[in-house]
Structure formats: structure tokens, C-alpha cells
Write a structure and sequence with these properties.
This protein is mainly alpha-helical. It contains eight helices and no strands.
């Protein structure tokens, strides 16, 4: 019985050792890409989702009120100030419409790379299969990298500008409403 167990264990070990394997260079490439994807995802996770929603919703409400409800003539200085607030439209809409999707895409790439690492560790992927999977994930990562590399900077700039400008914009809106209600 003991001999049968040893023979079975030897056969299983030999079969698993003979399974598909990738090269050391491929393993290193996978490790580097996984680290890059993890870092990128972490930078996106650090952006406060609730704050993104709060800012984009608040911006859209103020923008709509400024463009659709305010009919009086304003001073030149006030118009320039409001115009610089309204210029945030592109960034605000990007965060409202695309930020969460981009973060999900990076999360998907990270998960796909984790799965590939597990498949490599379990010797389920040979060199050619690895090259195909790696190329796909590398291409996906390379497409998202230029977009995501500016996300943190854009968010910080938008947050600073929004928090700096909103009190005065609200003051202008409240003054307009008070004047309209007279």
C-alpha cells in the first residue's frame, strides 16, 4: 500500500512537472505588467467616489441654473468669473460619464492578470497561449494608460477649482434669486 502511494505520488509529480510552462522572461513581463496595473488601479481607487458624485452633481445643477434660469445682465467681472466656472464642463462631464467606467476597466485588467498568473502557476498556459493573453492585456493596459495617467491630476485640479469658486458662484446665484423675488 505504501509502495502504491509512493508510485502514485511520483507519477502525479512527474505529470505536473511536465505541464505547460512559460519562460522566465515571460514571467518577468507578467510580473511587471501586473505591478503597473495594480498601481494604476490603486491610484484610481484613492479618488473619493462620493466626492466625484458630489462635485459633478453640484456643478451640473449650478451650470444649469446659470445657463437656463439667469436672464438679467451681469457685470463684466461677474460674467468672466462665471465663464471660468462654466469652463469646467468638460472635466466635470468626464468624471460624471467616464471615470467609473475607466476605473472598472482597470480593475478588470488587474483581475485578468491575476487570473493569468494563477494559470501560469498551475501550468495551464504554454508559451504561445501566454503570448496571446499577455498581448491582449498589454494592449488594453496601453490604451487606458494615457487616459488614466491624467485622471488624478485632473481630479485634484477640478476639486481645487470647484471648492475655490463655488462659494462665490453660490453668492451670485443667491443674489440673483433674491433680486428676482423682490
Amino acid at each position: 500500500m505504501k509502495t502504491l502511494f509512493i508510485i502514485s505520488l511520483t507519477i502525479v509529480t512527474a505529470l505536473s512537472a511536465c505541464g505547460p510552462k512559460i519562460t522566465d522572461e515571460q514571467a518577468k513581463k507578467l510580473e511587471v505588467l501586473s505591478a503597473q496595473a495594480d498601481s494604476l488601479y490603486q491610484s484610481l481607487v484613492e479618488i473619493d467616489s462620493n466626492k466625484v458624485i458630489e462635485i459633478t452633481t453640484g456643478y451640473e445643477e449650478r451650470r444649469s441654473l446659470l445657463l437656463n434660469d439667469m436672464k438679467d445682465t451681469l457685470s463684466r467681472e461677474t460674467l468672466f468669473y462665471l465663464d471660468s466656472f462654466l469652463v469646467m464642463k468638460k472635466v466635470a462631464r468626464f468624471f460624471k460619464n467616464d471615470f467609473f467606467q475607466i476605473r472598472q476597466e482597470v480593475k478588470t485588467i488587474t483581475k485578468q492578470l491575476d487570473d493569468l498568473e494563477k494559470d501560469v502557476a498551475n501550468r495551464l498556459v504554454n508559451e504561445n497561449q501566454f503570448n496571446d493573453y499577455y498581448k491582449l492585456e498589454r494592449d488594453n493596459f496601453d490604451q487606458l494608460l494615457p487616459i488614466t495617467s491624467q485622471v488624478s491630476i485632473s481630479y485634484e485640479n477640478m476639486l481645487k477649482k470647484y471648492e475655490r469658486m463655488t462659494p462665490k458662484v453660490d453668492s451670485i446665484i443667491n443674489a440673483y434669486k433674491a433680486k428676482a423675488n423682490e
